[in-house]
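Per-record layout

source: Smittium culicis
name: Ubiquitin carboxyl-terminal hydrolase
length: 489
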Amino acid sequence: MGDNPNVVYLFDDHSVLKEYEDLKQTFSQYPVYLPINSRDQWKDSNSALDIKIPAQKNPPSSWASLLRSKDYVPPTTTTKISTNTSSSKSKKKKSLKDLLIKWSLKKNHVLFKPRGLENTGNMCFMNVVLQVLVYCDYFYSLLIDIQKTVAFRFNSSIPLIESLIMFVKEFKPVTDSFEINEFDPPFVPTYVYDALRKKKIFQTSRGQQEDAQEFLGHLINGMHDELLHVLNTEKDGATKQNNSLGFASPINSLSPERESAAGSNNALIPPTSSTWQEVGKKNKTGITRSVEFAQTPISSIFGGYMRSELKIPGSKTSITIEPFQNLAIDISSPEVSDLDDALGSLFSPEVIEGYTNSSGVVVNATKQQFLDEAPNVLFIILNRVVYTPELGIHKLNKFISYSKNLTIPKKWISPPKRSKSSDVHYTLSSVLYHHGLLASGGHYTCDVNRRPDEWLRFDDTEILNDLSLKEVLSEKEDRNAYVLVYTKE
């Protein structure tokens, strides 16, 4: 650690070193969790990752101090996000639950030095996801808020959140204009791997490769479940039963604190009920079904709601409202050449032939999806794994054009909310690419928007800066855009 006299590191539990050593021993009991669908990627699928945590010479004074090298100097207080100074020592730390209940969405952009991530064994699918998340302003702000406000004791019930706070603290904010083009050395986020093992996120067969978008979904759901666990914990330490299903986790019951907060912070509880009759245009009625889904800051950042309408001649329209964390869109049709085409197809009516209505009559039903609530950060998955009788399962190496700005027109918005809403506007913030001709394996890289008119390209430890927007949007010979990340304006 650097000897900065203006910095005081607060830590409430001096037994943390022993606890940390115990956690390391616990983590070592878990198997290596290898990704799915590629026996060709892993050169040594029968061996565990050889990742060693450096020995700790001194008891840690903060959770970030576990990770810093001796020559690390914390950012000065002139930056937007900084280590707590001595003036912060007198401030009373909150509990994580208190912070989550009162938390409100905000986006603080912090310019920090880029760092590459070492690939310790075909871990590129994780590296690109971690880079995309650290450059997501909403996500970065949430983790820094937790780190600055909450008194932590290395609570093993939320290993993902703790490890990712450690991860974002590895990125040093830029303090002057001379550091704009500087990179810090690459590193291995060992503690994130350990937390993933603890959560058994990679509990899959050996020798298989994980898909980057699947990993992204597992990671986000895992963080959501951890925060939901905290929100459902009572003052006596008991936890109310809750199904850990990610964004699809229903609200079984609310603690008194959450009930009292519901009136002032509707981010915690969505305004939905189980079943009701909805009256639309020309007094046509429909039966709407929805579950009260548990909300956390993670779902408030990355989650949205989709409305699905099934219109059946001779029956009332059936309406279902469900949460989602990404839009997976079909790009296989020859008529789809750009992102607007693909989204238009997703929100177009679909005819279902041979449907039997409530009277037992076979009719043609119509199903259509609408965006009921747009997420603040929208993940769009371009479905490139397709099946045809001739080729079987294969990768679709087709260029789909996309732009910097994305507009969700009112016609794609849920009908009950359409009159009170306007078009939803997004700006491209990251692109995740897949390299290779096969669906069963390959390599992953990503482009991220660091600041206006500056893009970075990450390929594990390699970083290309000063990338132009034109290069990000153009067709590439060696890679295909796979996940597009848009942030609401």
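summary: The radius of gyration is 24 Å. Confidence is low (pLDDT under 50) at residues 1-17, 26-90, 203-208, 253-274.
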